[in-house]
């Protein structure tokens, strides 16, 4: 008879503390907004030293489950789509920085995503949301000559379109992709006068959304993003 080897792997104390605290959060024993037990309480409960508790807390913070503030108890965080994307923000940027192909894949993903978002906006937008888009376009016009202000208003415009869907996951995806792309936005937009093309294309998109014409809105968005995709490039590739 063959005996199957199933060795018991000893876990670090901090890993065991992490697992138990994570379970308390998962089961709802600790809810969003609750203070975590103090270090002293946890040391007494689990019979471990302060280093194991602190290491476990840092691991929870690294997973986006708790927030650690100097001089205060750690607090359980509310998990949202935005908070999840924040957890992968740095790895995503590092991934993009290593390959121009990966950046091109992100640009293509953005076009695929935003053509759907603008169709949704054309079907759902209220007069108040149309007014918000126009206000953002005015804000972008006021940012002419100021690269940071212009790009910030541009991002807000596209995020506003995603929010019209009423789906917070769509809004979070939009914010994440725009944030990742922002690092690779070149100065070509400002010093070649291409900002005027952007303003005209945004106006065209707003008109299509206001008319409720999803097909025209989608075509306008594709034209806008295909033209502007060259404005995002790795340093040294511009």
UniProtKB/TrEMBL annotation:
Keywords in alphabetical order: DNA-binding, Transcription, Transcription regulation
Official protein name in the record: Transcriptional regulator NanR
One of the record's GO molecular function terms: DNA binding
SUPFAM superfamilies noted in UniProt: GntR ligand-binding domain-like, Winged helix' DNA-binding domain
PANTHER family, A to Z: HTH-TYPE TRANSCRIPTIONAL REPRESSOR NANR, TRANSCRIPTIONAL REGULATOR, GNTR FAMILY
Gene coding for it: nanR
Pfam families membership: FCD, GntR
CDD domains tied to this protein: WHTH_GntR
Domain HTH gntR-type per the UniProt entry, residue ranges: 11-79
Superkingdom classification of source: Bacteria
